[in-house]
């Protein structure tokens, strides 16, 4: 269940906000957020900032919808927040997400990615039962999981989940 060990001791998993349907000839990779997606990205980013959630590093897929979601977080949490764009997050496996997180030598990291991989990475951290209790309908767009490492129990626990 503990798919990665600290550091980091806090992981934020943010699924990109709702994207527009692809236009004729447009690649999936290039789909932008739709109007609701822009609103939801701003809302979840503002709510996270209001709760004092601020990663030491934000890592985002290079897909347009993820970059636009990451931009909302960047605006809400301050322009001094470091952002790293990683091509490998697009069409990746949960193991890739966790490996990227695990190689960061920071206290907390936020990953802006895609489903089903974001949900699968959360499951790898907290386990199937905890995932099902927390998200019985799956990981929604613009959903933000806050996961902390409980040193006493030597396991990851879902601390909070924000969404629209």
TrEMBL record:
Name the InterPro entries for this protein.
His_Pase_superF_clade-1, His_PPase_superfam
Domain of life, per UniProt, equals: Bacteria
Which SUPFAM superfamilies does the annotation name? Answer: Phosphoglycerate mutase-like
**Family annotation (SMART domains):** PGAM
Q: Name one Pfam family in it.
A: His_Phos_1
Q: Which CDD domains match?
A: HP_PGM_like
Q: Write down what this protein is called.
A: Histidine phosphatase family protein
Q: Name the source organism.
A: Rhizobium sullae (Rhizobium hedysari)
